[in-house]
Amino acid sequence: MDKFKTVKEYIKDNLTPLWLEGFDSKQFKNSVVVEANAPKTEFAVFMGRNGAVFPSWYNAVLEKKNEQVNLLVFEDIDRLSEEEQERFLEIVKYRTISNAKLPDNCCIILTSSSTGRKINPKLSRFLTYIKI
Question: Is 19:130 a contact under the CB 8 Å cutoff?
Fold first, then answer.
């Protein structure tokens, strides 16, 4: 079975967020890629003088809301401790960040290396797992 073809089918259907183990995110052209170990401020919305200030990746995803494919890739999630991985729960489970909804066409992908490091069970239960 061609696993990359399977991944493409899951992306097309966009039914659940994906956890891709051993996958190079560079294979997804025109995707929004965020390092999982980015500062915590990249996973929250703040109030500024002129209203809400969203992370740069959120704005990039919104700009693609009318495109056929809109990939949001959080890279190397397994580099974080299981506790730190919980910052992705709201995004994966509710497709929101601080109650701001992701566009319907946004496919959420989390990547990990194939080193056997653990993924938080609270998070993995909402992901479709594919090992490449």
Answer: yes
3-state percent breakdown (helix, strand, coil) of the chain, nearest 5: 35, 25, 40
Please check whether residue 68 is in contact with residue 14, taking contact to mean a CB–CB distance below 8 angstroms. no
Nearest to 60 by CA among 75, 48, 42: 42
Instruction: Say how many C-beta atoms besides its own lie within 10 A of residue 14's C-beta.
Output: 16
Residues, the chain, total?
132
**Residues 71-128 pLDDT 10s:** 999 999 999 999 999 999 999 999 999 989 999 999 999 999 876 778 999 999 999 9
Phi, psi (rounded to 5 degrees) for 122? -65, -30
CA–CA distance, 95 with 117 (Å, rounded to integer): 25
Tokens of 104: 């319907």
